[in-house]
Design a protein that fits this description.
The structure holds two protein chains of two kinds. By secondary structure, chain A is α/β, with parallel strands linked by helices. Chain A is globular. Chain A has 15 helices and 13 strands. Chain B has one domain. In chain B, a hairpin with a 2-residue loop joins strand 2 and strand 3. In chain B, helix 3 packs antiparallel against helix 10. The C terminus of chain B is likely disordered. Classes of the chains: A alpha/beta, B mainly alpha. At the A-B interface, helix 5, helix 6 and helix 9 of A face helix 3, helix 6, helix 12 and helix 13 of B.
């Protein structure tokens, strides 16, 4: 039996070729027909297009008088860090809109002109913010920062969270004299007086989150005050990563400064899902308060396990959870559950400026999620930066801008009289809320005046 | 003794390399190789984006590690997830020796390679007692062990310890100069790129020498039929451990380069997820073709970047889903890797075209009078035959 294919027959092969030719010719005709139709349509729309072109030309002429300032935002819009990464883009877009359109808030700040933009040395400037998704990948993050610095020519970058990302990208921004703002509180270890002085290796690096002894001090004071002022023993469950290892001792000292004994810091690995053994270990210390830091999503999973075991006598505390998110989840607890936002909650806040900010944030189309408060770690900084440009009379001379930025005092969303100190770190309080049967009470505690004993560098 | 080793292994391998170099390439192969070399050499000129060049450097470094991993997988059929940890051993060795002893890149490079090799030998000794999925799980666990150790070494004060705890270590100096050429990646990307390409080229040559050497054939003999190899006297376990050690050496070199490229290393950069990604690159490109690991690295490195550029309108999440779907499609449709898959498709297309253009047999032609010339023997089959012969030779000697 032979396996003769039908295409082997000469007649069929000719037929196949003919069919192919017909299809090709039909496609060519179809394409030509489209062009003709398009041309006719274009001719009909010509007057409208001409008007549009004239308008565009006028706009172009106006825009030619505008000087654009390129600022980069590199954050995880996808991947494991998206939970807080998306907030960087959200605040960046909001600020870009407010400044370039001359929103009322921007005018009230004394920054914007009526028609949008702001003046530096008498010339109109606007912001052009370049967003890059680093996919929660440090290699992609560094590559994106390098592109923005070398190819786009940004003069400032809101980039680098978490810790490793900030350190790695600072090695790109600092030699290029690009102002680099990062919300990672661990940076304070490298932001020494020497490193931030003129000529120092981190002269252009800024930490937009308060120092850890200040943050942990205000958070722990608020937590103890609101959960149980008479409590004596607290146990900390801390995420075992770069930030967690850094935070642990600070929160322990802050609790001790608020009259607590802390017999144990239990570090839990990022992959942990069953927290029962850890809460049992905590319960062994007979604590009044059990504190869970610092991953809010894990906290929501973990706290029901703690409640089942009955790990604490007076209450629980979760770092990073927003009362708004807590309300959505309807977590039931007989004991008070404290929570702190980074730095101000959207679900329940006593600060008027912050409440107004969350309205603007949502009206602009941003969704309020568990970590939306992180957007505040960059929002005020844009305004401070522009004030520094205006004071320095330039945005290209990085050293002059840094000098001016250190002089800026900004009444912002997070705090009044907000400023960067000589080590390029801001100082602000943190809002702590407590839920008693889903009734919330909040307290915005300013940072302590003095660091607790044992704080590194003091 | 060294002379003996040279006589039995070195000369033979060198002869094979020379033979390979003299081998005539087909026009298609010549065009492909010329294009690859031209694109690699001119990449910094052709691509103006610093982002793409940065990605090329990073994945060039990973490709060095992948040639080691591909050597292990291709020659012994053992797929390791622990290579991210071995990469970490190289990176941490470079960073620790820089911080503690002030040693520069060129001084720590051999130490990083040797220490990663030692770590691989140490891990290989127990791990290679099992195979298949069990081996994958053991190497996965080893990877996590490495992360736990580097994250927690020093206990409560881990971040002040030798490994810097979870916060990791900084390498603040660039790679030292050679012939007056600086390799400071923060000043200029191109020199560092060419440095990585030079290392990659050396890696490629070394792996080919190893593959073509009697040692490589011994590995393949074990891969194809371990009981048979044992029966002819090959100490299969020792050879497998050696293969793992050799692959660790490449990972060590890549690790040292990686620490100097990024300037900062931390445990999470070398976790099991990264190990899976390295394995994925080898699977994607294919391990038994010369270009396989390189192609795997290029796909994983550049595809998300290209999707970022052409995927306008897609959200970052959607782009990640598209990326994942494309990877799954390649693995399912091309189980021997993309390079082998493309070669197979090319062969198929060529044969189909030849069959299509061939005139139908005339009435006088007897059936089977035009017999197709025999297909060239498959490389793998030929290698297997050769490996069996080699196994006999090694076993009998």
């Amino acid at each position: 039996m032979t396996n003769t294919r039908w295409t082997d027959l000469p007649g069929k092969r000719v037929l196949l070729l003919l069919l192919s030719s017909v299809v090709m010719v039909a496609m060519i005709f179809a394409a030509c027909g489209d062009d003709e139709e398009q041309e006719q349509q274009a001719a009909a729309e010509a007057p409208a297009e001409q008007q549009e072109q004239q308008q565009q030309a006028m706009q172009q002429e106006e825009e030619e008088e505008v000087i654009w300032i390129d600022i980069g935002v590199v954050a995880p819009s996808s991947g494991s860090y998206e939970v807080f990464g998306h907030t960087y883009e959200a605040s960046g877009k909001l600020v870009e809109h407010e400044i370039n359109t001359g929103a009322q808030y921007c005018i009230d700040q004394g920054v914007c002109e009526e028609g949008g933009g702001f003046l530096i040395d008498g010339k109109l400037h606007k912001l052009r913010i370049h967003f890059r998704d680093d996919r929660s990948d440090i290699n992609a993050h560094v590559a994106a920062v390098r592109e923005l610095v070398r190819d786009v020519g940004i003069v400032a970058c809101m980039c680098g969270t978490p810790h490793d990302f900030a350190i790695a990208s600072a090695k790109v921004t600092q030699p290029a004299k690009v102002l680099h703002f990062s919300g990672s509180s661990t940076l304070e270890e490298i932001l020494t007086e020497e490193a931030t002085a003129p000529g120092g290796e981190n002269r252009y690096l800024f930490q937009t989150e308060t120092r850890e002894w200040q943050r942990s001090g205000s958070v722990m004071k608020g937590a103890v005050d609101l959960i149980d002022p008479d409590s004596e023993v607290s146990v900390i469950l801390m995420l075992n990563d770069a930030t967690g290892q850094f935070l642990g001792p600070y929160f322990k000292r802050a609790l001790e400064a608020n009259g607590q004994t802390v017999p144990d810091i239990i570090y839990w690995d990022p992959e942990t899902t069953d927290f029962s053994p850890l809460f049992s270990r905590a319960k062994g210390h007979d604590p009044d308060i059990v504190l869970f830091l610092y991953d809010p999503d894990r906290a929501i999973q973990a706290i029901p396990q703690a409640l089942e075991i009955g790990a604490a006598k007076s209450g629980y505390f979760m770092f990073g959870i927003d009362p708004g998110e807590y309300k959505k989840r309807e977590l039931q607890s007989d004991l008070p559950v404290g929570m702190a936002c980074v730095p101000i909650c959207w679900g329940a806040t006593d600060r008027e400026q912050a409440a107004a900010y969350w309205v603007r944030y949502e009206e602009f189309g941003n969704e309020l999620r568990s970590f939306s408060s992180v957007s505040l770690l960059t929002y005020d900084d844009y305004y401070m930066l522009i004030k520094a440009y205006q004071a320095a009379g330039t945005f290209t001379d990085a050293d002059a801008v840094v000098d001016a930025l250190l002089e800026v005092r900004h009444d912002g969303v997070i705090a009044d009289g907000f400023y960067f100190d000589s080590r390029h770190i801001v100082a602000h309080g943190t809002e702590v809320c407590v839920s008693r049967q889903l009734e919330f009470e909040c307290q915005f505690t300013p940072p302590p005046d003095e660091p607790p004993p044992g704080t590194p560098g003091f | 003794m060294i002379a003996d080793i040279w006589d039995t292994h070195g000369r033979s391998a060198t002869r094979r390399i020379v033979r390979l170099a003299r081998q005539e390439l087909t026009p298609a192969q010549t065009i492909i190789w010329t294009a690859v070399v031209v694109v690699i050499v001119l990449f910094p000129v052709l691509v103006s984006s610093s982002r793409f060049l940065d990605v090329a450097i990073t994945y060039g470094i990973f490709a060095i590690c992948l040639y080691g991993l591909g050597f292990l997988y291709g020659q012994t059929n053992y797929l390791s997830i622990a290579h991210s940890a071995l990469l970490g051993v190289g990176a941490y060795t470079a960073a620790i020796l820089f911080i503690q002893a002030g040693l520069g890149f060129w001084a720590v490079l051999p130490l990083a390679a040797l220490l990663a090799m030692a770590a691989a030998l140490l891990l290989g000794y127990p791990a290679l007692r099992v195979s298949g999925y069990h081996f994958v799980i053991v190497t996965f666990a080893a990877c996590e062990l490495f992360v736990l150790a580097t994250r927690n070494l020093g206990g409560a004060e881990a971040r002040k310890g030798l490994t810097g705890g979870a916060q990791g270590l900084d390498v603040t100096e660039p790679v030292g100069q050679i012939f007056g050429q600086s390799f400071d990646i923060n000043l200029e990307l191109a020199p560092f790129y060419y440095l990585v390409i030079a290392f990659l080229f050396v890696t490629l040559i070394v792996t080919q020498i190893l593959v073509l050497s009697p040692l490589g054939r011994t590995f393949r003999a074990i891969r194809e039929n371990e009981p048979l190899a044992r029966s002819v006297g090959i100490r299969a376990n020792w050879y497998k451990i050696l293969a793992f050690g050799i692959s660790g050496l490449f990972a060590g070199v890549a690790g040292a380069l990686f620490s100097y490229k990024l300037g900062h290393i931390a445990p999470d950069l070398f976790n099991s997820f990264e190990g899976v990604e390295l394995a994925l690159m080898v699977l994607l490109g294919g391990s038994r073709r010369l270009m396989g690991p390189l192609v795997g690295a290029i796909i994983v490195g550049f595809l998300p970047e290209i999707l970022d550029v052409i995927g306008i309108g897609l959200t970052p999440f959607q782009r990640q889903i598209v990326f994942g779907a494309m990877l799954i499609a390649v693995i399912i449709l091309l189980p021997h890797g993309l390079v082998q898959g493309v070669a197979d498709l090319y062969g198929l297309a060529k044969r189909s075209l030849a069959a299509y253009l061939r005139p139908p047999p005339g009435p006088g032609d007897g059936e089977g009078s035009e017999v197709d010339p025999p297909e060239p023997a498959d490389d793998e089959a030929a290698e297997a035959d050769e490996a069996e012969q080699e196994a006999e030779r090694v076993g009998g000697s």
